[in-house]
Amino acid sequence: MKKILYTMLVALATTLSFTSCEDVPAPYDIPTGGNTGGGDTETGLKEIYSENFDNETTAFTFKDVTLTGGLTRVWKVASYNNNGYLNASAFFSNASHASESWAVSPAILLGDSKKATLSFKHAINKLADVSTMKDMMTAWVSTNYAGDVKTAEWQQLVIPKYPEGVSWTFVESGDIDLTAYCGKTVYIAFKYTSTDDNSGGWEIDNFTIKGDGTAMSIPSTPDTPSTPELAAGLNLDTTNGLVTFVNPDVTSDEKPVTFVVEELGLEDAKDVAELDLDGTKLIFGADKDAKMTKYYASKKSIRVYKNNTMHIAGKSKIAKVVFTCDSKSTVGNTTATLSFDGNNIDYKNVFDEASGKANVQFQFTKIAITYAK
Asked: Angle at the Cα of 268 (from 322 to 296), degrees rounded to 5?
């Protein structure tokens, strides 16, 4: 009797064992994608390219197609509480204006990826109708963009999640599949449109493309050539991140006097109007509609924006001033102007082209002044 019962129990256990395994996939047959090592443990993808727009820098370019009502731009790089982001708005002079403007990424290489995704965070305000958001604030991809958004071929990307449209609260976009573009070079664009009756604000942060191929770095941009031509008296060293003002009419035999920007007691993210050093003063200004020169503690540097001015009133004649920049690319640009007149030096970071790139900025952490003999 005991043998019969034992045989029946073994048979039952065997039956249950096979039944319980029927719906379990093979060890590597994971429907949602397995981990291939590194990067995202759920998808097996790693970061190919990303931008967080901090320090108000970006490799994106801004292309305006339609500007009305006195608009001079739609897109810019902005920051709040030391967090940078792309910002688009056609609300100007207390009114909405019709517009179309694109923020276009640099070339992103998916040549050796077999799977790729795009994601970002975005916030939308002053536009509560979700259907309107989906019409006015869209994402696109191109494989033949060559600088003109109107002649390139674009395919619209579906953004999985939009914000509520009534605050500046960021939400995750969700993953956008780019696998169809693997093996190619792509450009991602954010297209903003508005009407005379309706113009929301759109902010974009944490732009990230993941894939299973080779990661790439932010490419250099043409605003700061690697071997710039030097204006008279103005030397831009993009290898070491130095900007030098040289007065050709005087000689010097004194050691330089050095000043470190972070030791000058400046307030973070505040305008800088004047620096009083050792009796020599640096006075900063800006053209109409240009940002004012500011100090940023995170970079320990003073940021001279495009079309900002710097007047140096020397306590005596100056032979040379050397500015150490916070990176090799933040040396201003070759269209900047420089002049000497007695004890005075005038510099202007002239840049007349429309640009969202920070490379035209002059950001320095240290000043070394050598006075004339």
From this structure: 45
Give SS3 for 231: coil
Residue the block writes with tokens 């991602």: 188
Is it the case that residue 2 has pLDDT exceeding 60? Answer: no
CB atoms within 10 A of CB 127: 21
Q: What is the pLDDT of residues 137-195, one digit of tens each?
A: 999 999 999 888 999 999 999 999 999 999 999 999 999 999 999 999 999 999 999 99
For 46, phi then psi, to 5°, come to: -120, 165
What does the alpha-carbon distance between residue 94 and residue 126 come to, in Å, rounded to a whole number? 13
Q: Which residues of 55-94 are buried (b: 16+ CB within 10 A; e: fewer)?
A: bbbbbbbbbbeebeeebebbbbbebeeeebbbbbbbebee
As a whole number of angstroms, the distance between CA 113 and CA 215 comes to: 10
Quick one: tokens of 326?
């916070």
Structure tokens at 146: 């060559």
Compute the average pLDDT of residues 209-224: 65
Contacts of residue 315, defined as CB under 8 A and 6 or more positions apart, other chains included, come to 278, 279, 280, 343, 371
Residue 323 contacts residue 243 (beta carbons within 8 Å): yes
Listed residue (211, 359, 300, 283) closest to 292, CA to CA: 283
Residue keyed to tokens 């250099």 = 220
Contact yes or no for 223/354 (Cβ under 8 A): no
User: In terms of C-beta density within 10 A (0-12 exposed, 13-18 middle, 19 or more buried), how is residue 155 classed?
Assistant: exposed
DSSP assigned state of 256: P
Question: At 95, which helix (H) or strand (E)?
Answer: strand 95-96
pLDDT at 160: 97
Tokens read off for 169: 């609260």
**Residue 170 CA from chain centroid, whole number:** 17
Question: Which residues, in sequence order, are CB contacts of 156 under 8 Å at separation 6+?
Answer: 138, 139, 140
For residue 197, with 0-12 CB atoms within 10 Å meaning exposed, 13-18 middle and 19 or more buried, which class applies? exposed
CA distance 210 to 225: 29
- What is each CA distance from 373 to 137, 149, 246, 249, in whole angstroms? 61, 56, 14, 11
- The one-letter amino acid code at 26 reads A
Claim: this prediction has a pTM higher than 0.85: no
